[in-house]
């Protein structure tokens, strides 16, 4: 795709709710949800509350990290746990651990004998996550792999019932291609931030990210191997399954 075609295919500034962006930017750092801030708040209030264990991990993350906005929020944690529950997932893969919040949310919904492998490249983040995992009653279900995710994923046999892709956005196509052959027939790939920033970048760093996300979204749209739905939860989560 040429740069011009890319630009013309993206939403225009002002095409998405500015008020929601401003309100959310205050709370979430760079994350901007797609729906009105009041609706977002109502949805949060009327979803189950965050567990005390996850609330403690979130508080610890805000204390220890200068990028706490990278962490999933409570509704997203419930969504991930519900996907584990719904798919009766036993083997879960996460790409992008950060401080372990989403991994712990998914681990809490696993059945006896279930397992989550979670990949993190940053040793500082991995050390914080390891502490959170060790303090959890679900520590034995979590396998933390420190290093770049791609070689790790290529060495894992699968099949995976649920994959959560939530690391560097420019790697999404490679992660997707690496995990797709290892997805179980009823498996789901959940991809985070697919509507990041309303796909309207605010600075050069976001521009690279948004371009990569748009290219990923476009590839997916034309990929006959899979069917997908893009949810406007937070800043977009795409759920992908094999074509039936
Ligand atoms: C958005 S955060 C993950 C948030 C986490 N899933 C959660 O919801 O709490 C992305 C993480 O991916 C990690 N990361 C970036 N590139 C990576 C790579 N190539 N392999 C593994 N992890 C990577 C970053 O260090 C960061 O901690």
UniProtKB/TrEMBL annotation:
Pfam families documented for this protein: Methyltransf_3 (PF01596)
Keywords on record: Methyltransferase, S-adenosyl-L-methionine, Transferase
Single GO biological process annotation from the record: methylation
InterPro entries: Cation-dep_OMT, SAM-dependent_MTases_sf, SAM_O-MeTrfase
The keyword Flavoprotein is annotated on this UniProt entry: no
Stretch list, region Disordered: 1-20
An example molecular function term from Gene Ontology annotations: methyltransferase activity
Superkingdom of source: Bacteria
Name of this protein: Class I SAM-dependent methyltransferase
Upper taxonomic lineage: Bacteria, Bacillati, Actinomycetota, Actinomycetes, Kineosporiales
